[in-house]
């Protein structure tokens, strides 16, 4: 699949996530939790797929992405465990702090995703330019 097509899919997925969050605001707590659980399962599935791809990486750039993915997976595990630990707490102040922390985490995840989209755009443009250079070099040889 061309990288430009992958970038389009990324954009579409970001819009889908935005729409899901907007729709979630109108749902009850049980339904919202089920949607969050489904999103978590999807995120874990995507992370596993990415881990598989990056573990096969052979060049320096891909190895760097593999390390970023590993760090991200570790971070997610720590945050999720913290969130699970906080769910057991019933003290109102702690629940409020948990909500604040969850919101902060969501904002940080959005910032990271934004940066990843920016990097993906750069990578796609660089790949397209490299392909053009290769095509031009091949045409010059032929």
What's the topology here?
Blueprint: H1 3-24, H2 29-55, H3 60-87, H4 92-141
Describe the model.
- The chain has 142 residues and is mainly α.
- The chain has one domain (3-141).
- Helices cover 89% and strands 0% of the residues.
- The chain is built from 4 helices and no strands.
- It has helices spanning 3-24, 29-55, 60-87, 92-141.
- It starts with a helix and ends with a helix.
- The relative contact order is 0.08.
Question: From N to C, what is the helix and strand string?
Answer: HHHH
pLDDT below 50 for ≥5 consecutive residues: which ranges? none
Percent range for helical residues? over 70%
How many domains make up the coordinates? 1
Characterize the largest beta sheet: strand count, sense, and whether it forms a barrel.
none
The total count of strands amounts to: 0
| Average pLDDT, all residues | 80
Structural class: mainly alpha
- How does the overall form come out from the CA principal axes? elongated
Report the C-alpha radius of gyration, rounded. Answer: 20 Å
Report the portion of residues in β strands.
under 5%
Give the terminus-to-terminus CA distance.
27 Å
Enumerate how many helices there are, as a single number. 4
């Amino acid at each position: 699949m061309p990288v430009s097509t992958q970038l389009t899919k990324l954009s579409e997925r970001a819009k889908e996530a935005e729409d899901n969050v907007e729709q979630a605001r109108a749902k009850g707590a049980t339904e919202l939790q089920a949607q969050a659980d489904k999103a978590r399962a999807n995120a874990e599935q995507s992370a596993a797929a990415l881990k598989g791809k990056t573990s096969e990486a052979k060049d320096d750039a891909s190895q760097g992405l593999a390390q970023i993915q590993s760090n991200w997976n570790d971070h997610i595990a720590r945050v999720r465990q913290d969130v699970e630990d906080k769910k057991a707490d019933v003290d109102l102040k702690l629940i409020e702090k948990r909500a604040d922390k969850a919101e902060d985490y969501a904002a940080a995840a959005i910032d990271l995703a934004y940066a990843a989209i920016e990097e993906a755009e750069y990578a796609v443009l660089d790949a397209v330019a490299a392909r053009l250079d290769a095509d031009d070099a091949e045409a010059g040889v032929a």
